[in-house]
């Protein structure tokens, strides 16, 4: 890739000091009512760097970037782009300055093609002569120029999520953006897809683009950032170039305290399998064999981790085990009891608890109170009522106790769950599911979207369940998390188990290949593109 | 059958479901909701005044006629109260299933079948039964009849997931045929367009001399209290609310959707059946064909939506619609406008209220 704009540019920290800052934000302040989003934040973005903006949820990262993109007006502060002080009252003004943003939730028209989406913002409303072949040619040449592999004719709705993200990035480049802001770009990607994204970003950086990644994942910052700025409670607490930070410093800056480490694992000897799964087959609507003959055991006192790129049957596996998705064939046995056809309530009785991946869609009733949500499973089971009449006082007492035990803030049982932060909402699910004293806990991405502190809390709780001699089935997109917590790991690909190993003897190459669809020792070629990316990743 | 029809039906069902979810979305600040309702009422009166002006009558005289017609004297106030009692009950018949996101639009039919049972039982049992026994028996059987009518869409929903909007509406058409059969075939009264009058021993006693207010009014109030207790203080109400607000989470936590659907629909049918009993035993003493033009069952849907499905707001909401309904009778007498003017008035209010709510929800969505 040619580096026309910035001939001296090369990866690494040395260059950022020499290059002039392309964006300077000074003393940015923004409040939402009582809440301080940004308080006197300084932020510098240099040309040709990947800059990580790190912070916990609610630290003000997204607000700061929305200000730079013209979506939010600051109450005070200055923004300089190049040598000019600018006002950015709207995204159009930001685009005019070469600033573009990819939001966490993509802004693409699902029914349009890639080419149509890319030109969408650049077409004047009075341009009635949109020639299909011309815009496709334009977009194809732009894609080649920026080294982004895309088929301009594909419809967005047919594309996987990482490809949609590439469309978003190309859209900005096509409009002439030199400064790219990506809000939580990896939140819905699997590891191979993340590797692909990072490769694209590195190429763009080497071509002289400046990139901001908004994230709360330390591992990613270590991997890709040339410089990092840490926000905490709306303030800039750390700005440092590569080489000047490690995970520990960043975590401390982010949370303002030393992170408690996870307790060491005590290996529990072989015991009887608590969950036995045999040849499980699950269909999901029109998708036949979403889970395609899966068998495994989970021992008491063990965390079994399930890895895999999103959409390879993890979700259906969890739903089937929770009893909300029909099992076509196979067996689910928990402590010798056959639960294959059992209702969710019978599963609760048999000692199964589930932390669903989508806590808003499946875990909580957002418009009910905290106390009601904590009693959500108890009430239908007959607790907290007498002859059909509820006992609101015992529901509140029960809730108060759990709120204190699980450190939910604010500890107000009468609040609607809607008004709690993501971390505290997850603590509610955790409190409800763990207070049943489960023998088998199924947790699907339990730390997704949580800040570091809340995630560590959830992880400690999972370990405590294991230490008490119960079994945990942990499904996670986050390989780091699986390695931290699991005793054994299996990889799901297209509804099948392609890899299984105890955590001590995992081969990273085989794991990555299995996630891309190649079983170890076999020549199964499933997804050539994914295999390629995984191989790149394995080489690195 | 046309090739595309199986795709059209789910799409229409989906649209309907989305629209109903929007209209019954949980409200944040309730006093602002009341304010908005009053605003819509004001806007309705404005639109209505304009309409009357265009039709060549005096809006001021029309308004005065409406107010006098609905509560200008004891007699009219009594009529408004009785119509409000019916609307409160059919309002509950919609509000309780709606809270579980079960769209019971068959309150009309459930009320009608309740009225059919009322007439049948009252004319069949020996009229020598003592009053204190006769009336309660008829009322209870009418409620069971309404419940049976509600049970059908409930069971179909629970067992084969049949769309309850369609089934409850279909059941309404069947109930109308039952009522026509009662009027024309089973218990006709000469050549008039109604059944024979029910025996005096079966009727609900008058409780306010000088008006037509009967024991039906306190019965409706009692039903509203029962509904409030059910929704706010019972296990069933808890499950109804949880299912309505998030059916997935409710299932995940061990609630049984089918059971709740059946119980909820039966309960709704019982309330509508009670409205049918009050209509016959407490207001008209017979089942008449004119009943079909009153649409009390359908109006109950509007009553429930305005009350935001909350039993505590059902009575004010029912009173407001009863005021418009009874008031428009006075209006017709005073201004010699077509009787359909009353229907237009109610429809205007419903449309404006729902428009206000949709606009607010859209703003709330946009603000997020």
Provide a compact summary of the structure.
The complex is a heterodimer of chains A (540) and B (368). Chain A has 540 residues and is of the alpha/beta class.
Written description of the protein model:
The complex is a heterodimer of chains A (540) and B (368). Chain A has 540 residues and is of the alpha/beta class. Chain A folds into 5 domains: 23-98 and 178-254, P-loop containing nucleotide triphosphate hydrolases (Rossmann fold, 3-Layer(aba) Sandwich), CATH 3.40.50; 111-177, no CATH class; 270-351 and 439-506, Rossmann fold (3-Layer(aba) Sandwich); 362-436, no CATH class; 511-540, no CATH class. In chain A, helix 7 packs across helix 19 (528-539). The model of chain A is unreliable at 1-19 (pLDDT under 50). Chain B has 368 residues and is mainly α. Chain B has a domain at 91-317. Helices cover 76% and strands 0% of the residues of chain B. Chain B is globular and about 55 Å long. Chain B starts with a helix and ends with a helix. Chain A binds chain B through residues 322, 324, 343-345, 348, 354, 356, 361-368, 372, 376-377, 379-382, 385, 388-390, 392, and chain B through 26, 233-239, 241-242, 245-246, 248-256.
